[in-house]
Give the backbone structure.
Amino acid sequence: MQFQNYLISIQRRVAALLLASLCLAGLPVLAKPGTDRLALVIGNGEYDQLSDLKNAVNDAELVAQTLESLGFDVTLLKNLDDAAIDKAVLDFGENLVDRPAGEALLFYYSGHGIQQGADSYLLPVDYQVGSVPSITLKDVLQELQGGNFDSRFIVVDACREDTRLSNKPLTFQHSNQYSVPHGTILAFSTSSSDPAVDGTGRYSPYTKALTTAMKHSGLDASGVFRETGKEVFKRTNGQQQPQITGLLSQEFFFQPGGQRSSSVNFIEEESRAWKNINSSSNPADFLDFFTRFPDGEFAAMARKRYASLETYQSEEERAQARSKYGVVLVLEFDQANDTSLVRVSDVDSDSLLSGKLMRNDVVLTINHKPLPKGVGPNKALDQAFDAKGRLDLLVRRGTSVYNISVRK
């Protein structure tokens, strides 16, 4: 049996080289020397006979970007046909042999997968229904055992729905059929035969949760996959439950210099913190947030809102507006529409605008123009009065819109 497996392996290598020589001479060299963190990332989304996966390539790009930021030398390949995916895995595996000791090795695949007989296949974009593809998950496990690496990770985000054939996910069994070598983690985006959600946004729930968890310095690798599973299960309302098998021989942190923290669940902690401030109009809240979670899922949005609110909020401007006009405007973030809006915070009873503006009115335009960029709402109000001595406001009150005119 061992001799037969050896012959099959040789035949695959020869066939891959012959096919590749016809059209793949330009494929990049894999597993570059001199690095101790290596990754091969493949995203297949544009299929000839199966449903296209709108997020598969996006997911692969996000994983590649994340790993590169964490010190990995990444080879990113997209929309590979049968010859290309076979050659990519074989070349990557061959380049691992006789390498100096390395810290970590990671393989990531996003795309369709299928179960045929006892084997699970990663499907190339030119897969013909009923044919037998070249690369099985067992092949990947075998090829990635070369070299002297402390930790190895194989991450498979397959079992996506195929709407061209049956409107059901292609069967992709994986529960306990693989013998995973010690020092290797084999991670799946969903449980055996259950569908993996492609997602309504730019990335799948699994990849978004995984890349977020990887960046946390207090989570070791086992914690990363554990927290990813919890987050995906929560975000999909229990419809998708990631699985892992295998055991690392030593502790590994994706974030260089990471150290295990006593805080158990960073993703939940960040989500709770974001929920507490996401409707705030205080820029200090967002400054504190992205200081605490600089690489978290909501960090970019926190920075965006901080910059916006910091530009437009000024206690001095508020005080001047109240003194001169008896009204205070505040800039708030409209979460439903992902945009900023100007709301009336206070109106003094003896002011020019008393009886005209009401608390919680939303100011749409000042003198028939949108709020000027880079100018706070109270300062814009002051400038409009100074220029014309007359103020025309378009405001929204509940579901109605009103024109309000005021003279000094």
